[in-house]
Design goal:
Layout lengths: L1 E6 L7 E8 L7 E6 L3 E6 L2 E8 L5 E6 L12 H6 L6 H17 L8 E6 L9 H7 L6 E5 L7 E2 L10 H12 L6 E5 L4 E6 L1 H9 L6
Parallel strand pairs: 9-11
Antiparallel strand pairs: 1-2, 2-7, 3-4, 4-5, 5-6, 6-8, 10-11
Helix pairs in contact: 3-5, 4-5
């Protein structure tokens, strides 16, 4: 896997993303597949994670999630979060991007396939407030609808979001209060015209519950 740190055009010292070039990669464990009748399925290994059907008029897409999704990353421990210093600064983003790239490359259930990838900072736009995330999340479960006229660029959990008082969410809420909460990892899914959460469901719950900005 070849890596290139990407910097801003106006500031060559400011890290904005990590470019990856994968060669001879195996069939990805997490992969979208198309079928007749405007239908799609997101599979992970032998399991279906999500079924979708695009409207005939291309106005949106209906989807139905299963309970089969598994994160391609091992749980992130508090000690690791504390070890990556300068939260919110370019070196912090860069270290997490390299950490995520390592984990995705090693995972048999992740989306990496041969070609070029970019791990970049944040969604389109700079508003990462808790309120903004509340408005972006597609929380209907298991079934829902993405309206491509009004709801594109949303963020879809691939499993049901935990309640804020769940054990894992509580642990991440403590990290959020300490200012060390790791970023969430999203993947742009062009077939649905939205992002899906690869890893960080409980971190998002924690940050929203603590009313913190989410990277």
């Amino acid at each position: 896997m070849r890596r290139t740190d990407l910097t801003g055009a106006a500031d060559s010292e400011s890290w904005v993303g990590l470019g990856l070039e994968l060669q001879h990669a195996a069939l990805p464990g997490l992969r979208p597949e198309a079928a007749n009748g405007n239908r799609m399925v997101l599979s992970q290994g032998p399991d279906a994670v999500l079924f979708a059907k695009i409207d005939d008029d291309r106005g949106g897409v209906e989807y139905s999630r299963t309970e089969n999704y598994r994160s391609p990353l091992a749980p992130l421990r508090a000690a690791e979060a504390r070890a990556i210093t300068e939260p919110g600064q370019p070196p912090w983003y860069a270290r997490w991007a390299h950490r995520f790239a390592d984990a995705l490359a090693a995972s048999p259930i992740g989306p990496f396939h041969e070609g070029r990838w970019v791990l970049s900072r944040r969604l389109a736009g700079e508003d990462v407030s808790a309120d903004r995330w509340r408005s972006l999340l597609l929380v209907d479960h298991p079934d829902g609808y993405v309206d491509w006229f009004t709801g594109s660029w949303k963020v879809m959990p691939l499993r049901q979001m935990s309640p804020p008082d769940h054990g894992r969410a509580q642990a991440y809420r403590k990290q959020a209060r300490e200012g060390i909460l790791p970023p969430a990892l999203l993947w742009w899914f062009s077939g649905l015209h939205c992002y899906v959460i690869l890893d960080g469901h409980d971190r998002l719950v924690a940050a929203i519950a603590e009313n913190r900005k989410i990277d």
